Amino acid sequence: RIMRPDDANIAGNVHGGTILKMIEEAGAIISTRHCNSQAGEPCVAALARVERTDFLSPMCIGEVANVSAEITYTSRHSVEVQVNVMSENILTGAKKVTNKATLWYVPLSLKNVNKVLEVPPIQYARKEQEDEGKKRYEEQKLDRLETKQRNGDVIFPVINPEPHTVGYSQSSLIHLVGPSDCTLLGFVHGGVTMKLMDEVAGIVAARHCKTNIVTASVDAINFHEKIKKGSVITVSGRMTFTSNKSMEIEVFVDADPFVDESRGRYRAVSAFFTYVSLSKEGKPLPVPQLLTETEEEKRRFEDGKGRYLQTKAKRQAQMQQAAQH
Amino acid sequence: RIMRPDDANIAGNVHGGTILKMIEEAGAIISTRHCNSQAGEPCVAALARVERTDFLSPMCIGEVANVSAEITYTSRHSVEVQVNVMSENILTGAKKVTNKATLWYVPLSLKNVNKVLEVPPIQYARKEQEDEGKKRYEEQKLDRLETKQRNGDVIFPVINPEPHTVGYSQSSLIHLVGPSDCTLLGFVHGGVTMKLMDEVAGIVAARHCKTNIVTASVDAINFHEKIKKGSVITVSGRMTFTSNKSMEIEVFVDADPFVDESRGRYRAVSAFFTYVSLSKEGKPLPVPQLLTETEEEKRRFEDGKGRYLQTKAKRQAQMQQAAQH
Amino acid sequence: RIMRPDDANIAGNVHGGTILKMIEEAGAIISTRHCNSQAGEPCVAALARVERTDFLSPMCIGEVANVSAEITYTSRHSVEVQVNVMSENILTGAKKVTNKATLWYVPLSLKNVNKVLEVPPIQYARKEQEDEGKKRYEEQKLDRLETKQRNGDVIFPVINPEPHTVGYSQSSLIHLVGPSDCTLLGFVHGGVTMKLMDEVAGIVAARHCKTNIVTASVDAINFHEKIKKGSVITVSGRMTFTSNKSMEIEVFVDADPFVDESRGRYRAVSAFFTYVSLSKEGKPLPVPQLLTETEEEKRRFEDGKGRYLQTKAKRQAQMQQAAQH
């Protein structure tokens, strides 16, 4: 698909959210196809989780996005999909890897959306592939349980905030879920939710540093709760941490099925996005430090620093490993 | 929400219709939420009327639109919502008030769309607020009745019209109502209708003066008739009046539920839009005078002049009042 | 890409225009990529012509559209692309061929849009492929010249038309060309134009027979004139012919680059669309006969009948040929 002006920011960089949406659509297609490959109850694959995703190089208006997806592991009730995105400049022929993402889907029955069906197993070329997949499966399962606990936070508005404080850049948007946002089951596509989350995170980042910003990475996102057609989604973001050249933004998604009496507003998803600020030449710019005021903000800043250092250490370990080979 | 290239004209000014659509969405959400706040029949709030709205300053691509909504009055069967729109340049931090709009909603039962439900009353901080709200309620009710009468006019096409005549710039579009245009009840969102109306009015204005034009204000719009999913909407606009620096365009919306044999084409909405022409520096430009030919056109020109002078007088009175305080 | 409610009519059938748009995007990507495959002036491939296209089976909401494209011939200044569209029901795994389309593109210089560049030749597996391609090239060139002549017709409005007359169903829409409608060169994508044409043709067909209608085929379309960003497009359609179970609609596209003083309104494209009416079970329904009134209408009806009989004869010849093999 050719990237259009609406897919991008003013500087011409395609929004991370647009890319996440394409990734999720590819994942949903391949996993729904797989889960229906054996005769049985028809089902639709619903996104349960996206692993941490790095945006390796920016994509621009006029470039073509090539999205390819492959099923890499199946457990009894879930499918792991690896999606690769390449940006291709069809004028120069240059191709660059933009993303490699890993997504987990769960097949829900078309007749009864609360029923999770069984997944047909895939064949592995080598035994190790299955073992490694199983390890990834166990890890993500644990992480899913953890995030389910901590989902209770709320963003309060601040009157007349100072620049570079948390309150200054925090933002939220509401969106009424329309039919085109939804799967055949009548629930919001995970990709649509991620696109809205990236939009809010981008506004928070731009308000903080007042320059051109791009998505650098997204931490693992768990989709604990489905969001029904006709609901109102509130997406809120606040900055949690800044390093010299990056900003971490926490994003919450709350769903309010407000016509449906049986249920009040609930937290559907939360995630951390990392942004960098780019100069006109595409070089990373220094980021103003986040001013933390309350105890809570200081704690979150330290937590963010922890995640930042952990990611940095992991990346360095990978690079050393790669250098040794 | 960040304003994108598709939200704006070539000069980068966000279409008035895009803003009206955001306003209406915010109003629909807050009033639907309010009307469902007490146990009872679930309902969806349908737009009944938008009060006259001024576009105080243009919004541009890349700016963030901040929309806030508040319920200011409830009658037995209707809700008054005040919506404010601010444009924020997230690079400079500059904020400007773009619009203040007042909308009236009516709760329709989800089970039976022809049933208007009761609205839970709101609490007023001061008794005067309730009295003033009641006054506004009575006034709009009267105006609604009046416009219901005069809704019969049709736009006839003109062959080979001269520049600056009514026939030269008049325009119409048809639109097939899709699922995303509709509420849960299967009727077109008022905001979608207003966006189409602004689109036609803008084309009429641009055809007349062949420059960059922006919406300056919209007169009160009454939504007498619902429009069903699958209908074809015809939106037609014709210029009625020009002052030195503004153009008034009358817009009609006709709905044709053509698959539904029981009903023919009907007039759903009509309204007056005022446009100004802007130079590249954003200064208002003189507008070519409208050439009226028929008796009808001359009468409509005089009516438009009346509305123009009345608005001007009202604005001057407000300014004097403000200066005295 | 998964087909969404917005891509389809109320009966759930994806609009022919949506499919044409996907086809054209695939064609534009592959031919732009090919034309830039050798070092030289960068260029963008612009759609010059689409050959007659049949819609072999309907596509539905929730199905996945698989689009594949291949370059089948190159002349000095043009590229022939064959695009195949398959619909895949990812729940049942059923796949059906929806379309086979042939498109011609011309490479325009990115620096000077009026300069047509040379196309790098492709390699043919067999000499006959080149000869057949050359034959197709010559044929389309002739047809292009012919349609360039006959492009002058205008649709006049009719007051109070009788049901089933030409005037009763004729329709037109206007569209302001936005940034997302355009290529890197700032001209409207051929696919966007075809989608609007199909939208109008579909409304004409639905107004005539007041049932669920789907696109059955599109005659060859020639794109003689580019349409610039910021123009207003008027798309008008009128019925020209009905057989027992099909309707032929002629569609005109006029462009008005109204900010650009140097040029008035001009005819950009015209084409014939054929629609059929479907019952709830997807069976073709009889179509009310078109009532022709003027001499012109009768002549166009006979011309349409000629095209209809010619297509029918061709199809029968192909079937006999297929049976003999």
Total DSSP E strands of chain A: 11
Helix and strand content put the structural class of chain A at: alpha+beta
**What is the H/E order of chain A?**
HEEEEEHHEHEEEEEH
Could you say what the CATH architecture of the largest domain in chain A is? Roll
Overall average pLDDT of chain A: 90
**Greatest interface (CB-CB under 8 A), with counts per chain:** B-C, 32 and 32 residues
The DSSP helix count of chain A reads 5
Strand arrangement, largest sheet of chain A?
Answer: 2-7-11-10-9-6
- Any idea what the radius of gyration of chain A is? 20 Å
The CATH C-level class name of the largest domain in chain A: Alpha Beta
* Distance separating the two termini of chain A: 36 Å
pLDDT under 50 segments of chain A (min length 5)?
none
Largest sheet of chain A: 6 strands, antiparallel
CATH topology of the largest domain in chain A: Thiol Ester Dehydrase, Chain A
Oligomer: homotrimer
Number of domains of chain A: 2
Keywords:
30% helix, repeat (chains A, B, C), Thiol Ester Dehydrase, Chain A, globular, palmitoyl-CoA hydrolase (chains A, B, C), 2 domains, 5 helices, carboxylic ester hydrolase activity (chains A, B, C), alpha+beta, five-stranded antiparallel β-sheet, homotrimer
